[in-house]
Amino acid sequence: MKDMSKYAMVNNTSNEQKIYSVSELTRGISLLLEDSFKSVWVEGEVSNFILHTSGHCYLSLKDSDSVIACVIFKHSAAKLKFRIENGMNVICAGRIGVYGKRGQYQLYIDKAEPKGIGALQIAFTQLKEKLYKEGLFDASFKKPIPRFPKTVGIVTSPTGAVIRDIINIINRRFENMHIVIFPAKVQGKGASDEIIDGIESFNRLKNVDVIILARGGGSLEDLWAFNEEPVARAIYNSVIPIVSAVGHEIDYTISDFVSDLRAPTPSAAAELVVCKKNDIVSEIDSYRSRLKQALGNRVGIMERHLEGIMKRYAFKQPLFLIEQYQQSLDEGIKSLSQALNFFVVKKTQTVETAQARLKALSPVAILERGYSITMTMPDSKIMKDSAKAETGAQIKTRLAKGELISRIE
Predict the structure, then answer these.
(1) In whole angstroms, what is the distance from residue 404 CA to residue 409 CA?
(2) Are residues 72 and 39 in the same domain?
(3) 175 and 262 share a domain?
(4) Same-domain status, 313 and 381
(5) 212 near 245, Cβ under 8 Å?
(6) For the chain, how many structural domains are there in total?
(7) Does residue 248 sit in the same domain as residue 308?
(8) What is the three-class DSSP state of 14?
(9) Are residues 269 and 310 located together in one domain of the fold?
(10) Has residue 333 been placed in a domain?
(11) How far apart are CA 5 and CA 8, in angstroms?
């Protein structure tokens, strides 16, 4: 520990004690602490954690007896592989300093690791829980893998056994299958960016029917590119179905949960995506045989039905039936003609009778029997009473044939 005598000394010459300002004293303490605790490791439980809009993190570390304030600046927080939460036990590396405005000493954290479980495992669990809550793992969003893809896209390292195994299996199962490879790093810095670029390039060009993300086995650190959140979202946003084939059967990555289908190994992915050509040919032959048999059965049924129709009487003596129908038609026409004639005669007689009755009641008919009608002139009113006749008046008499004009004397 450094000697504090230079910060709190007695002026021997004047026998007067040095008086410090608050800022001077704080700077002195700060220099002493920063010099003495340039690099320390501290273990404790996280409390009062705050992620500021600036990107800086503020928290406290505590144990059963004490509490220390801590700060993680944005550039250090961005390097953490996991998300710090209250109640988490962590081991932190940093330096001790003093925040002058409060005169408070605090730990400036540069690194942090969860105690008992690795940072990557914590980050994996946290991201998995986050994406699950957002619905990125829902089966309803998963796209079906085409049964007969014309072109298979593969995002993987262009070197190594993985790509060779996939190509060999695809060619063995379906020769001449079109394969497009997007070379990408699958481990280390920049790997996630290249994987995303491969997914987005295939979606932009629309030159494949299905995408395989492939990588061989490895540790959690080796497979970490497939646990990055941007990679997960690129898989989710892909219009083209994606098969995740990362690691061995026991390995699980975030891409396995987001993708439309998980394959336990890259070789299994090739088998899941591409059918055996011989199996397809055999299936087609089976369908052809069944179709031929079904058509033959149907034709046989129709032939028997046609034979039954041909055996009917109508097909044996068709001309005889036509002659019978013609005769029936002639008889029908004859009956219709007779009925029509009878109707006309009946109606004619009715009209003649009505005419005779009307004629009998006609005034003209009465005149023909010798009667006459006398009318005044010039208004032609029928005279019914001789007493009303005036001497000298002219009258008109209507006879059966012609008229007479006379004067009353």
Answers:
(1) 16
(2) yes
(3) yes
(4) no
(5) yes
(6) 4
(7) no
(8) coil
(9) no
(10) no
(11) 5
Q: Please give the radius of gyration of the chain, using alpha carbons only, rounded to the nearest integer.
A: 58
Q: 177: which 2 tokens?
A: 């299958």
- The widest CA-to-CA distance across the chain, in whole angstroms, is 193
Return per-residue pLDDT of the chain as tens, 409 residues.
444 444 444 444 455 677 777 777 777 777 777 667 778 888 888 888 999 898 899 999 988 888 889 999 999 888 887 788 888 888 888 888 888 777 788 889 998 888 766 667 778 888 888 999 999 999 999 999 998 899 999 999 998 789 999 999 999 888 888 999 999 999 888 999 999 999 999 999 999 999 999 998 887 788 889 999 999 999 999 999 999 999 888 888 999 999 999 999 999 999 999 988 877 788 888 888 899 999 989 998 998 888 887 777 666 667 777 777 888 888 889 889 888 888 888 889 888 888 888 877 777 677 777 777 888 888 878 887 777 778 888 888 887 778 888 888 8
What are 318's two structure tokens? 């068709």
- Range(s) of the domain holding residue 216: 124-138+149-275
| Assigned domain for 155 exists | yes
Q: Domain holding 252: CATH number?
A: 3.40.50.10550
The pTM (predicted TM-score) of the whole model is: 0.52
Q: Please, what is the end-to-end C-alpha distance for the chain in angstroms?
A: 182
Question: Do 260 and 165 share a domain, yes or no?
Answer: yes
Measured between alpha carbons, how far is 94 from 97 in angstroms, rounded to an integer? 10
Q: What is the dihedral of CA 152, 155, 160, 161, to 10 degrees?
A: -40
What is d(CA 68, CA 107) in angstroms, rounded to the nearest whole number? Answer: 7
15 and 67 assigned to the same domain = yes
Is residue 211 located within the same domain as residue 294? Answer: no
Compute the distance between CA of residue 81 and CA of residue 92 in angstroms, rounded to an integer.
13
Question: Tokens in use for 43?
Answer: 């273990």
In a domain, 47, yes or no: yes
